[in-house]
Design a protein that fits this description.
The complex is a heterodimer of chains A (373) and B (307). Chain A contains 15 helices and four strands. Chain A is elongated. Chain B has 307 residues and is α/β, with parallel strands linked by helices. Chain B has ten helices and 14 strands. In chain B, the strands form three sheets. Chain B has a six-stranded mixed beta sheet with strand order 6-7-8-3-9-10, sandwiched between helices. In chain B, strands 2-1-4-5 form a four-stranded antiparallel beta sheet, with helices on one face. In chain B, strands 12-13-11-14 form a four-stranded antiparallel beta sheet, covered by helices on one side. In chain B, a hairpin with a 4-residue loop joins strand 1 and strand 2. Chain B starts with a strand and ends with a helix. Classes of the chains: A alpha/beta (373), B alpha/beta (307). Chains A and B meet through helix 1 and helix 9 of A and helix 2 and helix 3 of B.
C-alpha cells in the first residue's frame, strides 16, 4: 500500500511539473468540447438557390417567395435563362437550380398538374440530399396549399389524405448538440486516456528509468497500478468537468439518467482504455512509436464508433469492426443515459462487453510487460 | 562462498547471430572491489544486466549472494544495488524525492541507512531541492550511487560509473568506492579506462565477450612476457612507420607521446642495433628505455594473442 501511495505521489508530481503537458491534458479537451460540436452540425442552412422562371405568373412568384421564406435557402439568382443559372451552379455560386416552365400557372389550373425541374450540385452529398429534400418538401407543401384554396370547404374532399403527425422522443427539438456533446466527450476522454497512458510507460523506457525500477523488488502489479491510477483519476476529473462544466453550462445538457450508473460505466471503461494504452506501451520502444500506434487506433476508434455516422448504415464488415470497438459502447451508453435516461436493464450488455475489454486488454498487457528481457 | 559467481555464461542477440558474452566464468569474493575492464562493446553491460536479473542468459549459470539469477531473481533484486551506465533516475524529481522514492521501493527509508550514504549525500545535500536533471554530471553520479546504496545492498553493480565524468570527479568517485569497500560491500565495477584498473582488488580483462585474464592488477602486469621499451624521438609519426618495417619488431604501439615497443629477440645487442638503425634513418633525440608494462599494455598483448 505504501509503495502504491509513493508511486502515485511520484506520478502526479511528474505530471504537474510537466508544464507542456498540463494544458494538453486539462484544457485542450475542454476547448475541443466547446468547439467541436459547433462543427458537427448536421442542419444545413444557407443553401444557395438559383431560380429560372419562364412563367412570371403570380403562382410562380408565390412559390419562389415561399421557398425564400423557409429559412433554408438564399436566392443566388433569379432569371429567365437556364444556361445563365446553370452557370451559377457550375461556378459553385448556387447549390440548386429550380426551373419553373412557362405556362406553369395556366397548366396547373387547367390540367391540374404541372412539372418542375430541380438540378442539384451533388458534390457535397449531405448538402445535396438535404437541400433537394427541403425543396421538394416546400413544393409539396405549396401544392397542398393551393389545392386547399381551390376546394370549397363545403364540398366533399375527393382525394383521401393520410396525414402523418410525429413526435420526437428524447430530443424533442432535434437539438443535434444534445446528441453530439456526450459523444464527443466520450471520444475526448478516450483520446486523453489512451495517448497519455501509452506514452507514460514508454517514456520510462526511453529515458532508461525503467531499468532502475526493474532491479527493485517492486511487484509488477504495483508498478502497473501506480501507472494507471493517475490517468484513471484524471480521466474521471476531465469527464466531470466536461459533463457538468461545459455540457451543462455551455450547452444546457442535463443528464436524464442515473449519475451513479454513468460513473460506474465510466470507471470500468477507463480501466479498459488504460489497459489499451498500457498494451501499446509494452509493445513500443520509443514515444514516437507509441504515439503513432495509438494515433492509428484512436482514429479508427473515433470514426468507427457511430459518433458521426450511424453504425446501422455501415456495411457489414464495418459493423463488425464497430462492434469490436470499446468506444462504440461508451458513446452508446453516454447517449442512452444522458438523453434517454436508460437504466441498468437497458445497458447491462454494454457493461458486460466493457468488463470483458477491461479484463482482456489489461491481462494481455500484464503478460506482455516483463521486468526481464 | 563467493559473492558473485558465473559459470559458462553465454548471451547472444539477434537469434544467436551476435555473441555478446561467450562462456564467461569468474567469481568475486565477498568484500572485493572487482573491475571488469574492456573497451566499448566488449560485453560488460550485458554481463551486468544478467547479474542484476534484467537479462536472461542463453546458457550457463550465475549466482549473486548465493542466489541463482534465474530461479531466485526476486531475492537478488532485494539485495543488490545497480547503477546503470546511463543516468536513469527521474530527471523531473528533486534529489531528495528520488532518494526517498527508491528508499520506499526497497521498503526502507533514508534515515534507516543514512550512515551508509552520509559521506556521499552531504556533498549533494546542498542541492537536495534541485531537480535531478539539472545537476552536473559528477553530482548525478553521486546521486545515482546514493540511490543504489539506499537499501544497504550486499553487492553493488556499477556499470561504467566514470564514463563522461571529469578527472577530478573520477578520482573522488574511486575514493568513495574505496570507503564503501570498508563497509564490507562487494563492488563490481566496469570501466573502459585502463588506468582505473589498478584501483581494483582484482580485475577481469574482457574483449568481444571473452575473458582474457582474471587476476590482481599487479599479477597481470607481472605476467607480461618479455621486456617492454618506451621509444621516443622528435618525429613520432615517422618513428612509428620505421619501427613497423624494422625486422626485429614484435609489436609497436603509440602511447601518448612515446611508443611502446617489444623485440622479437631481445638483449643489449639488439637495443643497440635498433638505436643505430634509427640513427641511420636520421631520427633525432632517440631515447630507448625499458619500462614497467601497464594494464593497457597487457590488454593489447592479450588481445593480439587472442587473434
Amino acid at each position: 500500500m505504501r509503495t502504491i501511495k509513493f508511486l502515485l505521489q511520484k506520478e502526479f508530481k511528474q505530471i504537474f511539473r510537466n508544464k507542456g503537458l498540463l494544458p494538453v491534458l486539462f484544457i485542450a479537451p475542454l476547448i475541443q468540447l466547446i468547439i467541436l460540436p459547433l462543427a458537427a452540425d448536421y442542419e444545413v442552412k444557407n443553401i444557395s438557390l438559383a431560380v429560372v422562371d419562364h412563367d412570371h405568373s403570380s403562382y410562380s412568384r408565390k412559390l419562389v417567395s415561399k421557398v425564400g421564406s423557409s429559412g433554408y435557402f438564399k436566392l443566388a439568382g433569379y432569371n429567365e435563362s437556364f444556361s445563365n443559372m446553370f452557370g451559377l451552379l457550375e461556378s459553385d455560386k448556387a447549390d440548386l437550380v429550380l426551373e419553373i416552365p412557362s405556362g406553369f400557372e395556366k397548366t396547373l389550373v387547367k390540367e391540374q398538374k404541372q412539372k418542375l425541374f430541380i438540378a442539384v450540385n451533388a458534390i457535397n452529398g449531405v448538402k445535396a440530399g438535404l437541400g433537394g429534400a427541403y425543396l421538394s418538401g416546400i413544393i409539396r407543401d405549396y401544392n397542398s396549399e393551393i389545392r386547399a384554396q381551390w376546394i370549397h370547404p363545403a364540398k366533399f374532399n375527393p382525394a383521401p389524405v393520410i396525414e402523418v403527425t410525429s413526435t420526437n422522443w428524447y430530443n424533442p427539438f432535434m437539438n443535434y448538440k444534445l446528441f453530439m456533446v456526450p459523444g464527443i466527450l466520450a471520444v475526448l476522454i478516450t483520446m486523453v486516456g489512451g495517448y497519455m497512458c501509452a506514452l507514460n510507460i514508454v517514456k520510462e523506457k526511453e529515458l532508461g528509468t525503467i531499468e532502475q525500477i526493474n532491479v527493485t523488488p517492486i511487484k509488477k502489479a504495483h508498478f502497473i497500478i501506480g501507472k494507471l491510477l493517475p490517468f484513471w483519476i484524471i480521466g474521471i476529473f476531465i469527464f466531470t468537468v466536461g459533463l457538468f462544466g461545459i455540457g451543462r453550462l455551455v450547452y444546457g445538457i442535463v443528464p436524464a439518467g442515473s449519475m451513479f450508473l454513468l460513473y460506474s460505466f465510466l470507471s470500468i471503461y477507463l480501466v479498459a482504455l488504460l489497459g489499451f494504452g498500457l498494451l501499446i506501451s509494452t509493445f513500443s520502444e520509443t514515444q514516437q512509436q507509441a504515439m503513432s500506434v495509438a494515433f492509428f487506433f484512436v482514429m479508427i476508434f473515433m470514426l468507427m464508433s457511430g459518433l458521426f455516422t450511424p453504425i446501422d448504415s455501415m456495411p457489414g464488415w464495418a459493423k463488425t469492426m464497430a462492434n469490436c470497438n470499446p468506444v462504440t459502447y461508451f458513446i452508446e451508453v453516454m447517449r442512452m443515459i444522458v438523453m434517454k435516461g436508460s437504466g441498468f436493464v437497458n445497458i447491462w450488455f454494454h457493461f458486460v462487453v466493457v468488463i470483458l475489454f477491461a479484463i482482456g486488454l489489461n491481462g494481455w498487457a500484464m503478460l506482455n510487460y516483463r521486468k526481464t528481457s | 562462498m563467493s559473492a558473485v559467481s558465473l559459470k559458462n555464461i553465454r548471451k547472444t542477440y539477434n537469434d544467436g547471430k551476435l555473441v555478446a558474452v561467450e562462456d564467461v566464468s569468474l567469481s568475486v569474493e565477498k568484500g572485493e572491489l572487482f573491475g571488469i575492464i574492456g573497451p566499448d562493446g566488449a560485453g560488460k553491460t550485458s554481463l551486468f544486466r544478467i547479474l542484476t536479473t534484467l537479462l536472461l542468459p542463453n546458457g550457463g549459470s550465475a549466482t549473486v549472494d548465493g542466489y541463482d539469477v534465474i530461479e531466485d531473481y526476486k531475492s537478488i533484486r532485494n539485495c543488490v544495488g545497480y547503477m546503470p551506465g546511463k543516468f536513469s533516475l527521474y530527471q523531473d524529481l528533486t534529489v531528495e524525492e528520488n532518494l526517498n522514492f527508491f528508499a520506499t521501493l526497497f521498503n526502507t527509508s533514508i534515515e534507516e541507512n543514512y550512515d551508509l550514504i552520509k559521506e556521499i549525500y552531504v556533498q549533494i545535500a546542498p542541492f537536495k531541492d534541485r531537480r535531478a536533471g539539472k545537476l552536473s554530471g559528477g553530482m548525478k553520479q553521486k546521486l545515482a550511487l546514493c540511490c543504489a546504496l539506499i537499501h544497504k545492498p550486499t553487492v553493488l553493480f556499477l556499470d561504467e560509473p566514470t564514463t563522461g565524468v571529469d578527472s577530478v570527479s573520477r578520482k573522488e568517485f574511486w575514493e568513495m568506492l574505496r570507503r564503501l569497500k570498508e563497509q564490507n560491500i562487494t563492488i563490481l565495477v566496469s570501466t573502459p579506462y585502463m588506468d582505473e584498473a589498478v584501483l581494483c582488488d582484482r580485475i577481469a580483462l574482457i574483449q568481444s565477450g571473452k575473458i582474457l585474464s582474471i587476476d590482481t592488477p599487479k599479477k597481470i602486469t607481472e605476467q607480461y612476457p618479455g621486456k617492454l621499451y618506451s621509444i621516443r624521438s622528435a618525429n613520432t609519426h615517422q618513428l612509428l612507420g620505421d619501427l613497423h618495417s624494422y625486422d626485429n619488431t614484435k609489436s609497436c604501439f603509440a602511447f601518448g607521446e612515446s611508443l611502446h615497443y617489444t623485440f622479437k629477440s631481445e638483449g643489449p645487442e639488439e637495443t643497440r642495433a635498433l638505436q643505430n638503425h634509427l640513427t641511420v634513418l636520421r631520427h633525432e633525440e632517440v631515447v630507448i628505455n625499458e619500462i614497467v608494462p601497464t594494464i593497457e599494455d597487457c590488454f593489447i598483448h592479450l588481445m593480439s594473442n587472442e587473434s
